[in-house]
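Q: I'm writing a short explainer about LuxR C-terminal-related transcriptional regulator for a general audience and would like to include a description of its predicted shape. Could you first generate the structure from this sequence?
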Amino acid sequence: MFKVANWMIVSRSTLLIDLLDCRWPQEFLVKLVSAQPSTMAKTLEQHENSLVIFDLATIDLQQAYQLQRCIDREYSDVKTVFINFPKQMDAKFLIHCAITSGVFYSDANLAEISTGLTKILKGGSVIPQELYKSVQNDTDEEDQLTIREREVLQALLSGSTNLDIANQLFVSESTIKTHLYRAFRKIGVSSRGQAIAWAQTHMHEVVV
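A: Of course. Here's the predicted structure. Afterward I'll give you a sentence or two in plain language.
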């Protein structure tokens, strides 16, 4: 006897939800539930889902990021998929290799998405190669940073001066300048503003 999987679609588009509800339950032998971004957490508590699909055409990217982090923290067995993923803006910060199983650009049709979901159902992942490589490169760059360099970059996000950071970490101001210089070189930036922008995208999990 086949086991019915439980999937959730998070979207503000009633039309898309109705369309998928007509296709996917029969095509993939799944039970599909829907949720608004504001009700996702509550819906997850009420249903045992193995996959959550985010419709980025109707969800703000930062909100999608926060919702996925919620899943990662509280539902370790749940995987995520993004549909209508934008090509024209840098949204790769959404991709978390441990939890993201699929990414489909906004020009992907339902047949392409269905083919990808079939692979995901079998335990695979479907992420465009160039996007996956870019995420891996960013991860490599971040991993090269020392713990102290990561702490200093994180401190920049709070608007701290070099002296503030030095006092916070109990080191000299010149030591902080050295850490910043080395960190800037590793992540490929040349200014404080660029470093802050990089940290905003890549260092969500760092806690000083």
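A: For your explainer, you could say: The beta strands are 5-10, 30-35, 51-55, 79-85, 100-105.
Q: Perfect, that's easy to follow.
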